[in-house]
Structures are given as C-alpha cells and as structure tokens.
C-alpha cells in the first residue's frame, strides 16, 4: 500500500491522504518533484473483484480532463500506471491534477457552517459559469455528480468543480446507458434511467444549493409532489425560492433547459412558465413482445417473476423449433436411462456409457435452466426486498434486504447478458442475470418508476 513520502514514477512524492475513499481507491496530496508544486494524485487499484466499468470511467475522466481548460477546473497533468512495482500486490492507475487549497462545501457543512442567501447566490453563479463552459463544448461534457463534496471553496474565495469520475462526454444518450452514476438526493430521476442531459447537472446544482441553505441533505428533506420541500425554517427572496424550485423540477421539461438560461434567470429574475402537467413524465419503454417476465404492482408492493434462463432462450425460437429442441433432449434423457439400466444388468461399462453420463449431466443442467425461476418482492409496508429462487416445485436461496438500506438500482452487462443490481449496506442485491438488453432496460424502468413514483 502507499505511504507518506513514497515516490511514484520517480516524480510524485506522496504527502498525505485526502478525503474519504472507497476500497481500491485513494486520493493523495503530493509534490511534483519536477515543478516543486503541490498536486492531487487519484489512484485506482485494478483488482479481480473490480468491474471493468470502473476502469473505463477512470480512463474516461483522464481523457476528458485533458481537453478541458477552465480556471475553476483543476488542470490535468498526468496519467500513469503502476504495474505491480514497489511491492504492490495489484496494478494501480494514477491521475494527476492541480491541487486546489481550500475546503469542500461538504467539509464546511460538517463544521456546521450556515450559508447566507448572498453566499449561495454567488456559489450558484460561479458553478453555472463552469457548467456553461462544459455544456457548450463539442461534444458537451456532463459532470453527472455535482454535490457539496465535489465543490471546493478555495483560499482565493472562488468555487472549483472537482471529481470528474462520473463524467459523460456527450449531451444526451440514445437509448439507455448501463452504468448509472450519481448520488442519491442530488441526481435527478432521468439520470437513474441512464438518460442524463445538461439539465441533469442543473438539478444536482439546485439540490446542492438546498443543502447549503438548510444544512440538511436533500434525501433527508420531505417531498411534495416529487419535489424536495425546503421552505420551512429559512427566509429567502421569493424569486430565489422559485428559481431553486425550477432548478429541481422532477419533470425534465419543466426545468431550465441550459445553464445559460438558468444564469440569466438568476441574474434578472425571470422564471419561465411551467406547463400544466401536474405529474412527472414516466418512462416510455414498452414491455418487449414475447417477454416471460411477470410483473404485478400497486402502491405498496411490486412483485416480479423472472423466467428460467433456458426458457428465455427457447422463446428466441419459433414454436416448432422450440418443441423439437425439447423433444430432442427428452429423447436423449430416455436413451441415457435405458443404456444405464442395461449396462448395470450386464455388469459392463464402456466408453459409450461414460459419454452417456456426460450427456446426462448436460441434460440435468438444461432441465435446471428450464425449471429455475426467480421471485422478487418489494414491500413498502414491511420495508423489505425479498429475492427467492424456485426450482420446479422447490424454493431455495431466499435473501432479504431492508428497503431503507438500498442504494440506486442500475444495470450491469456481461456481454449480451444483463442483470439489475442494487447496492445495500452490506452486500449487492442482484437479479435478472438471464435477461437481454431490451427486457432488462424495460424492467429497470418499471422498477425505478415504482421506487420513485409513490
């Protein structure tokens, strides 16, 4: 592991670890021995348990930062790998940027600092200037993780936007992306659907401003009609309240469409009229034809029954080929059983019997693939998520999670196979590993609709 005074690549001498970092990730304050300047070194371990998508996001962050040139975005300096050198057990990747002396807004909140309306307006204006720059690049750059811990209040009294680990170098996504990033309470609903746009960063900024004004994280504040309710206990200009409310509209069409529009409204006090739509726009994807997923939902319960992997594969064929495949395997199984019995009676085991045994195991696996199902139940009244497997008439492997301990649902793909994952406090909840792209996308949308639209 890394230690103070350790030198990486014979250039970056580590000084002290910065912030709270997850397993396999570290951020250090270091000295660039070539320039004798302080820098920030972000490190990512490439471990067997790590998802490839994490490395892709890390590499994307480095690529995007190289192309950015803004005085309040820490400048990119270097990207390197440490291939099991210096006694390391795993390869590590490093990203080097300028160091910004100061405190994050989250650190100031943790010290019980309360921000005035004037201070929050100034912060909003400075961050909007950064977003105008990012969103007007070609292609536009979306940060996708604006929150107090990623905004640094520098010693020069300027606000800096840091941590581009969730960055996306395009304005909108065709279809649905399968790496859902963002932080609960700050990321808008469309981002959890994998459809982040420029206005998604505006929502995150608005939620951040609410946190600064109230001292309470948005996820811990009450909601009214899907919007964070923050008016109680604070005294603000009515226009500023309306402006923040429009920034945090859950309906994308009601939000400001661009950072430039939001900045103009903040400066001159003009709020665009909202449409008459009173309910959030839900996902537009329809259930794929031929899907065997069963879904039953009401306000308090969501029941999902997922088909067996082999059964799903059979539905990819027309009825006659599917029946032929099933008949073929039944015929093989009957032949194996007959040969096994005759071999036992004669006391003679030959190579043919060994081959039959292999076919028997294959057939057992196939029938397992046809007979196994997964039942998923979300229950708000009991505050739990239950997942249990069914093999023909037997149930096994039941898991239970508290709904209040769950994170954000997202899709993970392994080749052509997709599964839904929901992180919990102690483990990762997974289901749907036999689903294809369109089925899993539709199912994730239905799940998010139920979770976020009560």
TrEMBL record:
Signal peptide: none annotated. CDD domains: STKc_PknB_like. Pfam families: Pkinase. Keywords: ATP-binding, Kinase, Membrane, Nucleotide-binding, Transferase, Transmembrane, Transmembrane helix. Gene3D superfamilies: Transferase(Phosphotransferase) domain 1 (1.10.510.10). It comes from the Bacteria. GO terms for molecular function: ATP binding; protein serine/threonine kinase activity. Residues 12-282 form the Protein kinase domain. The chain crosses the membrane at residues 319-341, 347-368. The keyword Cell inner membrane does not apply. The keyword RNA-binding does not apply. This is Protein kinase domain. It comes from Coleofasciculus chthonoplastes PCC 7420.
